[in-house]
Amino acid sequence: MSCHSGYRVPYTITEWNRVRLLFKSSRMHELRECLAILSMWRSRMGDSTPVAISCSDLLVRVAIEELLIESSDEKWMKIEALKMQHCIAIIRCVDIINKTRSDIHYYYYNKKF
Predict the structure, then answer these.
(1) Tell me, what DSSP letter sits at residue 112?
(2) CA 29, CA 46: separation in Å to the nearest integer?
(3) Which position has the higher pLDDT, 17 or 6?
(4) Which InterPro entries match (predicted)?
(5) What DSSP assignment string belongs to 62-75?
(6) Separation CA 20–CA 13 (nearest Å)
(7) Per-residue pLDDT for 1 more than 60?
């Protein structure tokens, strides 16, 4: 695991660059590889997995589901489930933003002079 500026991260620079490349893909096998790497990071971190990794994992799962819908007979059910997954991803991302903002405000108002 890499460690920079006192932060513990569950990946190497090679893994990070690979995920950055695969995350933008629209090919099933590349998205599955990305998901496998993200799952590996989650297993390395356990309960202290950063929310950004969890959200990325969720977004890749949604992208895979979108690709699978095209070959489904029951599209309407899968589309509804996909809408729910998108909602979950959005809520998680908003949660990250709110937590970051509250941490910044807490630090700003409670710092010692």
Answers:
(1) -
(2) 26
(3) 17
(4) Las1 (IPR007174)
(5) HHHHHHHHTT-S-H
(6) 11
(7) no
